Amino acid sequence: MPVRKLVMKAFRLLWIAFVALIVVDLSVGLPYPGWWNSLPLILAYVLVAVLNRRDRPAAPEPVEVGPPVTGRWSALNSPADRTPSHGTHAYGQTYAIDIVAEPEPGARPGFRALWPLARRNSDFPGFGAPVLAVADATVVRATDRHRDHLSRTSLPALLYLFLIEGLARTIGGTGRIVGNHVVLDLGNGTYALYAHLRHGSLTVTEGDRVHAAQQLAQCGNSGNSSEPHLHFQLMDAPDPETAHGLPFRWSEIGVPRNREVFDVPRPASAFHPE
């Protein structure tokens, strides 16, 4: 088993140990100061930090691929502003990007401090938007078993996401984090991951050969997601737990910066399933 995968398994086990110690301490008490309970958690993040520092290859030249969507979108957590873009190299996320649909100003509901606590996915213009293959490729992973949950766009909902739901998903493993997803083999050791896809929307299965601009699924809100959006990244392996992230650029767009709004015209060669 690859070292990176072993470390991620150890990371989850240490999280479980942390939660177990907290539960036992609150239930019956433990014979040492409470702050000792945080040692497994500290060790978990030290372990991942050391791995990422020692096992991080030099960044190659960006791989140019087509955009994974059409229409007007804006970028969040962009590698154009910082790397790792999501604050961690884990799960091949070094150069990952999140994009949300912005068809017109005000079409996408904004953050609210208290109310509404959550919104329906249909309130967001990105929910159900087509997600496209960025190149001719082979489908090597296709998962469509996770539900689309309500948004996490209020302060209480975000606290729930980070303190409770995020913890449960971390312990549950990669699948619980990325939700419904597709991984494409683009060739030359490059793989594209599309995460947080809409339940029931996948139009491909593992082993399928797809063409550039072919619809793969729809944008959704599954996995560790605060609102309907697409998480996209390139990797050097098909398994996010063992992969390193690879830099990308989208043809004629580049890499949008955080909150940059960009337009992607519908490609003339777009292929859609019947």
TrEMBL record:
Recorded GO MF terms: metalloendopeptidase activity
Domain M23ase beta-sheet core: 174-236
CDD domains per the UniProt record, alphabetical: M23_peptidase
Top-rank taxon, per record: Bacteria
PANTHER family attached to this UniProt entry: MUREIN HYDROLASE ACTIVATOR ENVC (PTHR21666:SF270), PEPTIDASE-RELATED (PTHR21666)
Protein name in the entry: Peptidase M23
